[in-house]
Automatic annotation (TrEMBL):
<keyword id="KW-0175">Coiled coil</keyword>
<dbReference type="InterPro" id="IPR027356">
    <property type="entry name" value="NPH3_dom"/>
</dbReference>
<feature type="domain" description="BTB">
    <location>
        <begin position="55"/>
        <end position="124"/>
    </location>
</feature>
<dbReference type="InterPro" id="IPR000210">
    <property type="entry name" value="BTB/POZ_dom"/>
</dbReference>
<dbReference type="InterPro" id="IPR043454">
    <property type="entry name" value="NPH3/RPT2-like"/>
</dbReference>
<dbReference type="InterPro" id="IPR011333">
    <property type="entry name" value="SKP1/BTB/POZ_sf"/>
</dbReference>
<feature type="domain" description="NPH3">
    <location>
        <begin position="214"/>
        <end position="513"/>
    </location>
</feature>
<feature type="compositionally biased region" description="Polar residues">
    <location>
        <begin position="1"/>
        <end position="14"/>
    </location>
</feature>
<feature type="coiled-coil region">
    <location>
        <begin position="536"/>
        <end position="577"/>
    </location>
</feature>
<dbReference type="Pfam" id="PF00651">
    <property type="entry name" value="BTB"/>
</dbReference>
<dbReference type="GO" id="GO:0016567">
    <property type="term" value="P:protein ubiquitination"/>
</dbReference>
<comment type="pathway">
    <text>Protein modification; protein ubiquitination.</text>
</comment>
<dbReference type="Pfam" id="PF03000">
    <property type="entry name" value="NPH3"/>
</dbReference>
<keyword id="KW-0833">Ubl conjugation pathway</keyword>
<feature type="compositionally biased region" description="Basic residues">
    <location>
        <begin position="621"/>
        <end position="630"/>
    </location>
</feature>
<comment type="similarity">
    <text>Belongs to the NPH3 family.</text>
</comment>
<feature type="region of interest" description="Disordered">
    <location>
        <begin position="1"/>
        <end position="22"/>
    </location>
</feature>
Length: 630
């Protein structure tokens, strides 16, 4: 670093007024007739005072040396007044080295202007650094009224924190001001201001756009993880919904964990050399440095710890993605176990692709391309133990709900696990014992049908074609032949990979089911026949009754015809007598009318004893039978 004496600086200042290319100078006339000259020597910096009064000592901040006067600084900076001046080895004067100065040389130059009485501009970009630097230099009100601490604090409180954009800018600048920004509560106050504005925005926009992503997610996701956690804690304290907090966490993870959404592409190829298996997991990312891996691990552990406890706060897919990242970067076992339990509570929302978690070996964290040669009995490509623990937690939770007589969820996990079994069955490194243990992990009454289990077993037999007959029989004993559908039975009957005994059992069980189905139909047919016979019997009885009534009516008609013949004979006898012909004519007319007319009723008087026609007599004898006949 190049340092110049005051006289040399004055000489240089005079010589540079002609526009030299080597040094660009700026001169300022102070109220006390001090002249400030800032020189830049090709990356090496010196800051000089070229006044009428010689400078007292030099101050070094980072790579820049400032030749200044003692009095303007001591009058406003209590820290400088308390220190002893350290002599320079170069015998060029006295120098004070300010190690870890907040804001660096740029902030110190602004403070020098303030000490020399020049006006300075406060902005969201420099206010946090000025506030920390003034605290570092102890620029309090005890030394001078209106010192830099009070002015910067007032601007920060009344101007910055009232604006969302300015607050974001200040909090972002605090990332390079640790631990001063935390100790002065600048970070906490910014986080509280952001949380208050975010929670207020949620309340005002809840009715208008409930499904729209909040506008502040991207701004909050830009912060460092420790500041983000403070914001989330402050937002949670304001009573923000867990779903909103979960969405914000997901947005942050997408930004800072780019490898989280990379799906497992599977096996690109198998290399079988004796008992070894070679495989690679491809994701398209570059190899990461150890420092970046440590940062990623810190982010993962922090995000897992701040996920809201509510089940609907984040999706099951996101938690399984975080679990993959946790396995990759070897986060603490306690956080991993907690995340596995969280996943088990929402396992009904999981998909098979989400459960395909690669198995990472020690030293693989941070590497997205994993290539290793493993003995076929040591390790599988997928981490099956993690999924098995998740299922175990799920079953334990279901059992607790049953014991506590709580309402259980209507979700059958068998279909999900059978599809997962079919996926892991393609791994030639999967032992038959591990496959059998996982397949028998569920209770027997969990599966309504064993079609999915049969498909997984058939996939395993296809991949492991070298299994012995004993192992094939052992594997097929897992499924219940009576729970196979007709399509599965038809496929099994033609499957050459199955043992002959298993095929016979499947055909026999299907025959038993067909017989049972036929027996169930027979009682129904008998009932239909009995009902039809009952209806036929009642119709026959009605026909017989009608026939009997018809015979009775016929007999009555015969009697009426006989009566009519007798009356005709009597009429003929009477008509042969000449006397009282008029009276007999009248009587005959009445009888004839009674025989050939259909009166509605019988008149009182002379018609009471008149003979009735056959039809009238028939209606009087049996009116109901006449109606039934019609």
């Amino acid at each position: 670093m190049k340092s110049l004496q005051v006289g040399q600086a004055q000489q240089d200042y005079g010589s540079h007024t002609d526009g030299s290319d080597k040094v660009s100078d700026k001169s300022i006339l102070f109220p006390n007739k001090f002249i400030a000259i800032a020189d830049s020597f090709k990356g090496e910096h010196s800051w000089f005072i070229a006044p009428q009064i010689p400078t007292d000592f030099s101050i070094q901040v980072q790579e820049t040396t400032y030749n200044v006067h003692k009095y303007p600084l001591i009058s406003k900076c209590g820290y400088i007044g308390q220190l002893e001046i350290q002599p320079l080895i170069s015998n060029s004067g006295n120098v004070l080295k300010l190690e870890n100065f907040p804001g660096g040389s740029e902030t110190f130059e602004t403070i020098l202007k303030f000490c020399y009485g020049l006006p300075i501009d406060f902005s969201p970009d420099n206010i946090a650094a000025l506030r920390c630097a003034s605290e570092f230099l102890e620029m309090t009100e005890e030394l001078e009224d209106g010192n830099l601490i009070s002015k910067s604090e007032a601007f920060l409180t009344f101007v910055v924190l009232s604006s969302w954009k300015d607050t974001i800018t200040v909090l972002k600048s605090c990332e390079n001001l640790s631990p001063w920004a935390e100790n002065l509560q600048i970070v906490r106050r910014c986080c509280d201001s952001i949380a208050w504005k975010a929670s207020k925005d949620e309340l005002t926009s809840e009715d208008a756009t409930p499904n729209q992503e909040s506008w502040w997610f991207n701004d909050v996701a830009a912060f460092r993880i420790d500041h983000f956690m403070q914001i989330i804690s402050a937002i949670r304290a304001k009573g923000t919904k867990p779903e909103t907090i979960g969405k914000c966490i997901i947005q942050y993870a997408k930004r800072w964990l780019p490898g989280m959404e990379v799906e497992l592409e599977g096996l690109r190829g198998y290399g079988h050399e004796k008992c070894n298996l070679q495989f690679s997991i491809f994701s398209g990312k570059k190899k990461e440095s150890s420092g970046h891996s440590k940062e990623q691990k810190t982010i993962i552990e922090s995000l897992i710890s701040i996920i809201p406890p509510q089940q609907d706060a984040v999706s099951c897919k996101f938690m399984l993605q975080m679990l993959k990242m946790a396995m990759m970067y070897s986060v603490s076992p306690a956080l991993t176990t907690d995340l596995e339990k969280r996943v088990s509570l929402v396992l009904e929302d999981a998909e098979v692709s989400d459960l395909l978690i690669p198995r990472y070996q020690n030293g693989d964290q941070g590497k997205t391309v994993i290539s290793m040669t493993i003995s076929s009995e040591e390790c599988t490509m997928l981490d099956i133990d993690v999924v098995q623990r998740i299922v175990e937690y799920f079953l334990m939770h279901e059992q607790q709900q049953i014991q506590q007589q709580q309402k259980t969820r209507k979700f059958n996990i068998s279909r999900l696990l059978d599809n997962y079994l079919a996926e892991i069955a393609r791994d030639p490194n999967l032992s038959i014992t591990k496959f059998q243990v996982f397949a028998e992990f569920l209770p027997e009454n969990t599966r309504s049908y064993d079609d999915g289990l049969y498909r997984a077993i058939d996939t395993y037999l296809k991949t492991h074609a070298s299994l012995t007959e004993h192992d094939r029989k052992r594997l097929c004993k897992i499924m219940n032949c009576e729970k196979l559908s007709l399509d599965a039975c038809l496929h099994a009957a033609q499957n050459e990979r199955l043992p002959l005994r298993t095929v016979v059992q499947i055909l026999f069980s299907e025959q038993v089911k067909m017989r049972a189905a036929m027996h169930e139909k027979e009682p129904a047919q008998i009932g239909i026949q009995s009902e039809q016979e009952g209806n036929h019997t009642s119709a026959t009885m009605d026909i017989k009754a009608l026939k009997a009534e018809l015979e009775n009516v016929k007999s009555q008609m015969v009697e009426l015809q006989n009566d009519y013949c007798e009356l005709q004979q009597e009429y003929e006898k009477l008509s042969n007598k000449p006397k009282n012909s008029s009276g007999w004519s009248l009587n005959w007319r009445k009888i004839k009318n009674s025989l050939h007319t259909k009166p509605a009723g019988v008149e009182i008087g002379d018609r009471q004893d008149a003979p009735k026609s056959p039809n009238t007599i028939l209606r009087r004898l049996n009116p109901r039978r006449r109606l039934s006949m019609s």
